[in-house]
What we know:
Elements: H1 2-32, H2 35-51, H3 59-68, H4 74-84, H5 87-102, H6 106-125, H7 128-134, H8 138-162, H9 166-189, H10 201-230, H11 232-264, H12 268-274, H13 276-304, H14 312-319, H15 327-337, H16 341-366, H17 368-392
Helix pairs in contact: 1-8, 1-11, 2-6, 2-9, 2-10, 2-11, 3-4, 3-7, 3-10, 4-6, 5-6, 6-9, 7-8, 7-9, 8-9, 10-11, 10-16, 11-13, 11-14, 11-15, 13-14, 14-17, 15-17, 16-17
Amino acid sequence: xxxxxxxxxxxVLEQTTGMLLSFALAIAFGHFASQDLYGNYKYVLSLASIxxxxxxxxxxxxxxxxxxxxxxxxxxxxxxLQIRWSLPFVLSSLALAGYYQYSGNEFLSASLVxxxxxxxxxxxxxxxxxxxxxxxDFMRGSLYLFGMNAFTFLALLTALFLGERAIYLxxxxxxxxxxxxxxxxxxxxxHARNHIEDSSLLSxxxxxxxxxxxxxIADKLDSVIIFTLLGPANLAVYAxxxxxxxxxxxxxxNLYGLxxxxxxxxxxxxxxxxxxGKFWFVTSVLTILMVAYIVLAPFIFDLLFPLxxxxxxYSQWYALSVIFAGIPPLVVAALTAHKKTRELYLATNAPSxxxxxxxxxxxxxxxxxxxxxxxIVYRLSILAICLYLFFYTSTESK
Length: 398
């Protein structure tokens, strides 16, 4: 409990400040940016996320698991691996940029060139946070993340007021965040306690990355389908509907980073025995937060996002899917800590397949309502699969 209180305080503080920065930026977009501008910007970020499926996307989790065991040299090892294995991502981004250039969409073509240049380096230098959290240095890790987010926020705010062009936002986001993360990576690596590397880092991260391929596609496929079928304005409405519940859900995601170092040092059987109370606690907290949000959503949108009041009903329905979002991060942390690869494949891929199938059917049929329904089905499937795997997985380490 002392560990939870100390580490949790800094993680919640970082998440809260991140929420406030995102909230302030959303207010700026909600007042000063057209729906088309914001929709185009979000679409590029979604494409970058989907294309990351062909990179070592699981390297951060593998790094955290290694550093938690005292192998601090894996930070620079992971940086080298991330850069080395970024070639498929770069080639995919440039190929898609060429397609959009051929199609006459200069904005998306130029944006994907920016993505190809900066995203690999951004992903590599962003490993600093997992490194610090694995060392249980939650204070420094949280302060560093806040600094990176604050710098990116100020840069985006400046770009928004310099001119209403989505390419300004895309370029500013990647350049500013890469510069900030690069500086913080340099500072973080100075806190390595040794230079011991992990010979299994590439193997384990490859497994985690393979698990993430379907999930990376599924996570942003709804944005791509909405942009393609319904246009950038509807994507902006959908993004604002998800924005506030996603920020609250981000508090639950912190449980993964908090639990992974601790679970690495406990047996899987002990984790199974001692987690039921934690599951009930985080679910109760999220239920209270979501009920409060559902009640207050109309007032929040009327006051802060007057251009997106049509997002209110969608946002209230989506909030229901967040109630159980605190359990899966704890389950995945336990499975990752004990390298239960088969169970991780199932936990990450099965719900993603369900999501891909549901959004492919429901969005063309029902538009944004279908997208929200798909998200609710997805979250419930994650919960059911994670609970099954957690309580019926062998206690033997792999």
